[in-house]
Amino acid sequence: MSRQPHAFARTDQSRLGLWWWTTDHILLGAVAVQMMLGVLLSFASSPAAAARMNIGDPFHFAVRQCVFAAGAAAILVGVSMMSPRGIKRAAFFIYAAAIAVMAILPLLGHNAKGATRWLEFGGFSLQPSEFMKPALIVLVGWMFSEGQKGEGVPGVSIAFGLYGLAVVLLLIQPDVGQTILITIAFGAAFFVAGVPMRWIAGLFAAAAVGLVGVYFAFGHVASRVHKFLTPDKADTRQIDSAQEAIAAGGLLGRGPGEGVMKRHVPDLHTDFIYSVAAEEYGLLFSLMLIALFGVLVMRGLYKAMKLSDPFEQIAAAGLFVLVGQQAFINIAVNLNLIPTKGMTLPFISYGGSSMLAMGLTLGMALALTRRRPGAYAAPDGLAKAGAYA
């Protein structure tokens, strides 16, 4: 029996063929599985979410999730075909546009749950901070690498300026969770850039002071911390319902569509989709989901650390940390390991801005880690063109 020919021959010099053979297939496969699982879980959570919001179509959110997933896949493939120089340019314009929109949110934005984070138009809610995050990390990586060259470019100062502007606009909304997220990714990029350890210690100290300041400045942050530390004295129905759903799933789950507790979990299709997955598919599925994110982040960091160009290395590492940390925060909230914070699970939770922005984030990361001549350094430090790391 003859073997079926591959969709793309290794000699295929088309743009799509070159993209296929130079993109890391493990990373690409992990993202594809996550997208498919997101669509699967949207069909499990959509009926209960639609009923809670009095929406007639039980699969309203599932259909929209399919559209968002298709859009994210298109963005991911298109962006991952770009060159590192193209990624820099795209990041500059995306950051500038996102910052501009974030600046006008206090005047034109949509307020929900005490925060003004969205711009509504044509039935779609855009959260500009989602797109700002990957663009910021790429620009920060660019500036740190320029600063390393010692050619008079104040790269570190510019990087801190870009980060500081983003933090100010996020806290105006307010969005403390996203602020913490970009701070962690910024710190990771700072570390990978090889700055002196005293600078790293200073950044950690500043972050600690900032957390204390946020606690006293924002009442909702203090309230969530109090609920987490003293659950017997606070209303914890939301997290209690999520915990019950996770416990009810057992080892193998109740079965697809058979979840009961999801009817009582607020934001089940967004922030608490993990609890829906745990109830219907069980502990083994939940661990597989966590392992999938682990593979994505660890493989991504491994590829990033093998890159020979400082910009590509710093930016790629920061992007993978960004994705991994967001997944960690979402799952940790569902497991009641940290105070509640509205943050989506990458590619799994429902949400247009989140899904499309994740396509952009991983598209940039895949573009930077693609196999190109001289992209990866050999063990002896010499350039090793045309081979996977």
How many separate domains make up the residues? 1
Rounded mean pLDDT score:
87
What is the overall number of helices?
13
Unreliable residue runs: 379-389
Our measurement of the CA-to-CA distance between the termini, rounded to an integer number of angstroms, reads 33 Å
In spatial order, strands of the major sheet run 1-2-3
Specify the biggest β-sheet.
Answer: 3 strands, antiparallel
List SSEs in N-to-C order: HHHHEEEHHHHHHHHHEE
The total beta strand count reads: 5
Instruction: Please state the overall shape, judged from the principal axes of the Cα atoms.
Output: globular
**Percent helix:** 55-70%
CA radius of gyration is: 21 Å
**How much strand?**
under 5%
- Secondary structure class reads mainly alpha
Features:
mainly alpha, two-stranded antiparallel sheet, 5 strands, disordered C terminus
Question: What this model shows, in words?
Answer:
The protein has one domain. A hairpin with a 2-residue loop joins β1 and β2. The longest helix is centred in the last third of the chain and has 34 residues. Helices cover 67% and strands 4% of the residues. The protein has 389 residues and is mainly alpha-helical. α4 packs across α5 and α5 runs antiparallel to α6. The chain is built from 13 helices and 5 strands.
Describe this structure in a few short sentences:
The chain contains 13 helices and 5 strands. The protein has 389 residues and is mainly alpha-helical.
